[in-house]
């Protein structure tokens, strides 16, 4: 039996993804510059730590899988692009359903 697992490749993809922190813009603008700078530094530090943790976890997972005899094939950019093209319809469908799923999740959390 063949099982395909997509390993995120956090080290390679770090520059592609970002994290968001949301707050009231008017409130944030009213904060002293030193507080805004400290917040910005903390967000940057936290994001870098998250990527580091994910990369370390991925490395450990990969080692554990390989120790169990799992063969992992690293895709080059051309193969990844081909995968993206093949999966585009499924991904577009999933993204189109996100607003409804998010609304249901918020409704369920608020009840």
Q: Could you walk me through the main structural features you see in this protein, from its secondary elements to its overall organization?
A:
With 111 residues, the protein is mainly α. The chain has helices at 10-13, 25-30, 33-67, 77-110. The protein is extended and about 55 Å long.
The coarse silhouette is extended
- Total discrete domains: 2
Beta-strand percent range? under 5%
State the total count of DSSP E strands.
Answer: 0
Largest sheet: none
Radius of gyration: 20 Å
Low-confidence stretches: none
Q: Give me the number of helical elements.
A: 4
Mean pLDDT, as a whole number? 82
Order of helices and strands: HHHH
- What is the straight-line distance between the termini? 44 Å
* Helix amount: over 70%
Structural class: mainly alpha
